[in-house]
Amino acid sequence: MALYLGFDVGTQGTKALLIDDVQRAVVARASASYGLIEGLPAGHAEQHPDTWAAALREVTTRILQQADLKRLAGIGVSGQQHGAVVLDADGAVVRPAKLWCDTSAAEEAEELSARVGRAIPAGFTAPKLAWMRRHEPELWRRVDLVLLPHDWVNWKLTALATMEPGDASGTGWFDAQTRAFCARTLRAVDPRLAGMLPPLVESGSIAGTLTLQGAAWLGLPRECIGVPVSTGGGDNMMSAIGAGATREGVAVLSLGTSATVFAHSSRALLDPEGLIAPFCDSTGGWLPLLCVMNATGVLEEVRAAFGLDLDALTREAERVEPGCGGLLFVPYLVGERVPNLPRASGSLLGLRQGLLRPGVVFRAALEGVALNLALGVERMRGLGLAIETVRAVGGGARNALWRSILADALEATVVPLSEPETAALGAALQAAWTRRRSAGEAIAIDAVANGWATESAAPERPDARRVLALRAARERLARVAQA
Predict the structure, then answer these.
(1) Is 45 contained in some domain?
(2) Roughly what angle, to the nearest 10 degrees, separates helices 296-306 and 310-317?
(3) Which of 13, 104, 214, 384 is most solvent-facing, going by the fewest CB within 10 Å?
């Protein structure tokens, strides 16, 4: 057996998968849920890293109940992108981490974008630090080290602080073309920032080895001390590995609290307006990525409003014709990144008698999120990225009606994958790849990841009649967003 442990530290919870790389099987799995800090002003979204630590220990305990980890060969960590973990000189957390969905730094994002001459979204890490410098100067003066969420977990495990190109791509101060920090952007945030960052290391290299303190912190047996910890990466980069987007021609749609569409590329794909992120992946290539902030959270709002469960709402929505009788759900409930509207709000347009029924509103919500994604995918195609088939992952991908709507809205075949936790799987696979490379084996990440992504249901293909109905709705949404 060659066992590899992958963690995914997300916004709603932490997942863990233990895989056997020889048998190509998942040996054990566990999850732990949590939420955001409550009571914060509108636009603020934060979690304390201690919350992640508690969840990591919980899932590790459950993994140990299912498998013997004395033969563990590697650990990989996936983490939510863009979060700002700030530590003092003693390694203590200075304040809770501001997350990807925090839009409180919209003003700072606009100012930074103007100063450096390129768009930096409010959700990226750089504006969050600029916000802290402006609004919390006493706390900011205490900051000695800035890490991303998955980097913080690596640091706790290995006692070594590092950053890798994939996750660093979402900071705002990283140049994806040169794969290096941008000194101009760092100075624009704060002249001290360059000295607060850890060194960049190559994706897929060993970030460090598990220390005695790291094993105790996680709850792993002493036999695991010295196990290599790979660089890991952001959740999208790790999900790309777990979903098999390790070669060109494979696109992935991840449906969670936010939704992303991404694909492996052998070159950097630059969007002049900065809407399609020119990310690096966590294997040495690139990962052009579309991210919208409103996805399953929109459906949850409808569910809570009507007091019905998602299955009941889906059954009602299946009876509603595409286009919802002219009802358009503009899904910008927490602002939006693509299009770049951090202060936007949502709306229901075209209300007429009989349209406020649960099934109509729920289908309009499904369509609204899908149409907003379609606007971004249309832009990706315009930049030269071929997207004909997408592999769907995440909680939202389990809904067959939504997959059908997405196929029509994106005008692409949608294939659901059987493994829902592709980020945790990707972290474990990257750990396996890293261990094998460090042992001198010349192996590509695609050879390690190939075969793990399998279909869970029949593909959903676009229907010509429904495509026409949703194409008109997409153009309408585009006009609304422009206004």
Answers:
(1) yes
(2) 90
(3) 384
